[in-house]
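Predict the 3D structure for this chain.
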Amino acid sequence: MSSMAFSNSLKFSKAGVAPVITIAAETVCQEGKAFVRIILKDNGIGFEQKYSERIFGTFTWLHTKDKYEGAGLGLSICKKIVERHSRTIVAKGVENEGTVFEILLPAKN
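Done. Predicted structure below.
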């Protein structure tokens, strides 16, 4: 699941700029239960924050398909997997600066 966000970080990197991707994880407690928060941050092309929900739509592209290939399914599948665990995935973007994906999943006991 986070591999799709990682793949997108590479795909949407800036031309002429080496991609920098950081991945961090931490255990957090919410409502007396343990969860794992995965944070993936890149220095790619980013996006306008107003599209933060739209990027998780099925067959959704923010850019033309001739510039960036893809089926428009990856992030929507990630979101469905996370939601099946009754948790969240969010994206925060800044155009021309990068994207941060935050995924919250139940911790394995």
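The chain has a mean pLDDT of 82.
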